[in-house]
Specification:
Order of helices and strands of chain B: HEHHEEEEEHHH
Oligomer: heterodimer
Largest sheet of chain A: 3 strands, mixed
Shape of chain A: elongated
Number of strands of chain B: 6
Distance between the termini of chain A: 8 Å
Number of helices of chain A: 5
Distance between the termini of chain B: 12 Å
Low-confidence stretches of chain B: none
Mean pLDDT of chain B: 93
Structural class of chain A: mainly alpha
Helix content of chain B: 40-55%
Strand order of the largest sheet of chain A: 2-1-3
Radius of gyration of chain A: 16 Å
Radius of gyration of chain B: 14 Å
Chain lengths: 115, 154
């Protein structure tokens, strides 16, 4: 995973963790099992710090995809985008690395990383 | 959940009979490495980051020698569990301040489409509580599997 995609994936993971902590049912279940779940402000701060390290254009693409889909950063396995399950052209990984563009699925627009 | 179903989340490759790590972060790193070596994770660095962050919300050391670090991440391709032991014990910041001897690392994908993550977490917490001693003594994957089957009455 390239550094650019990895940072966006970190944003995605952090946003998920924030949603989990904010979800009363999930939090209650974890606490009932004996786990401590605190520090929501700390997560929001970490997210803000992380976003500052990301180029604005990358973040804009991420936000745009997130508005459309639950998950913006998805893996590619055997040339299949695991967001929309469409096959990617054989040349797509190489072509994207040559142009320096953020790797996105031609079909659904999700941001890709190769397994 | 049957013993076979529960055991399907584990594998011999993700069984660490004796951790080399002597610190909490070292334990997490060694367990994530076991997952990565088994090809069960797309990006170990990303996964480790998420697990460390989850620990910052509150230690997953539940006390009585048990720790269950867990979380969902973009890096995880499937729901998987790593089991590890430390006969000497590791300070994991557990709620009772006692060293942890058995560790379950539970990872699940970003989208938990099968809704298995929280039930699995619950089942493993129950297992760790009811079969702690046989699990501490399990020095092989077959001994571990036998302990799980016995705990679930099979």
């Amino acid at each position: 995973m390239s550094d650019r995609v990895q940072r966006l994936a970190q944003v995605q993971d952090l946003e998920l963790m924030i949603r989990e902590v904010e979800d009363p049912a999930g939090k209650e279940k974890e606490e009932a099992l004996g786990f401590s779940v605190a520090g929501l402000a700390q997560l929001h701060n970490a997210l803000a710090r992380l976003e500052k390290q990301i180029p604005r254009s990358d973040l804009q693409i991420y936000r745009r995809v997130r508005r459309k889909y639950e998950r913006a950063v998805v893996p590619v396995m055997n040339r299949i985008c695991l967001g929309c399950f469409q096959a990617l052209p054989t040349s797509s990984k190489r072509a994207l690395s040559e142009t320096g563009a953020l790797p996105t699925c031609e079909n659904c627009g999700r941001i890709l990383y190769w397994l | 959940m049957t013993a076979e179903h529960l055991l399907s989340y584990f594998s011999e490759k993700r069984f660490v009979p004796e951790l080399r790590a002597r610190s909490k972060d070292g334990v997490l790193l060694e367990m994530v490495r076991a997952l990565a070596e088994d090809g069960a994770v797309g990006d170990p660095t990303l996964l480790l980051e998420m697990i460390r962050r989850r620990e910052s919300l509150g230690s997953t050391g539940l006390g009585k020698g048990v720790a269950i670090p867990h979380g969902r991440s973009t890096a995880a391709t499937d729901t998987r569990v790593v089991f590890a032991r430390s006969t000497k014990g590791v300070d994991f910041g557990a709620i009772d301040n006692e060293p942890c001897r058995i560790f379950f690392l539970i990872v699940a994908p970003y989208e938990d489409t099968k809704h298995e993550y929280l039930p699995l977490l619950g089942k493993i917490a129950e297992l760790a509580n009811s079969a702690r001693d046989p699990l501490v003594a399990a020095d092989s994957f077959s001994a571990f599997s036998a302990a799980v089957r016995e705990a679930l009455g099979e």
